[in-house]
Amino acid sequence: MTFKEIKELIEIFDESNLTKLSLKDKEFKIELDKNISVSAAPVVATPSTPAAQPTPVAATPTTTAPVESSDDNADYIKSPMVGTFYQAPAPDAAPYVKVGDKVKAGQTVCIVEAMKIMNEIQAEFDCEILEILVEDGQAVEFDTPLFKVKKV
């Protein structure tokens, strides 16, 4: 991992709701903790690299995002980080949610991949999905509205 990649990882971590992050590669290990500090140490290489596991991240819904239609009852689930939006846990899997689905607080609605880490985005409140605002595989910025929802 290059210095630039480490710097980008730290910036994404700082902007996220995560408090701890651990990343292990064949040659090194990085641990980030917002309450302590950043550390890097060499690690013994292993023959197989474990697959990245989704990390729960709470989305930050708001009602102030400008969207084409003006529905007074609409809220939004927004991206808490810069990354790539995925509707499903795998390319051949069913999407987490569809338009019209009712979701519970804490339920995973999508994944945002950042620095090869799959971050599960969860609803912070019970809601109904009114519209999916981004395409599968699309790059998203911090605070990009992902879903138009209605609280239930």
Secondary structure category: mainly beta
Instruction: Outline the low-pLDDT stretches.
Output: 60-69
CATH superfamily of the largest domain: RNA polymerase II/Efflux pump adaptor protein, barrel-sandwich hybrid domain
Strand order of the largest sheet: 4-9-8-6-11
Helix content: under 10%
Rg on CA atoms, Å: 17 Å
How many separate domains make up the residues?
A: 2
Architecture of the largest domain in CATH? Beta Barrel
Task: Spell out the helices and strands N to C.
Answer: HEEEEEEEEEEEE
CATH class of the largest domain: Mainly Beta
* Tally of strands: 12
**How far from one another are the termini?**
44 Å
Helices, by number, come to 1
Please report which band the strand proportion falls in: under 5%, 5-15%, 15-25%, 25-35%, 35-45% or over 45%: 35-45%
Find the CATH topology of the largest domain. Answer: OB fold (Dihydrolipoamide Acetyltransferase, E2P)
Largest sheet: 5 strands, mixed
Outline type: elongated
Overall pLDDT confidence: 79
Describe the secondary structure blueprint for this structure.
Blueprint lengths: L2 H13 L4 E5 L3 E6 L5 E4 L12 E4 L15 E5 L4 E4 L15 E2 L4 E7 L2 E6 L4 E6 L6 E2 L4 E7 L1
Parallel strand pairs: 4-9
Antiparallel strand pairs: 1-2, 2-3, 5-12, 6-8, 6-11, 7-10, 8-9, 10-12
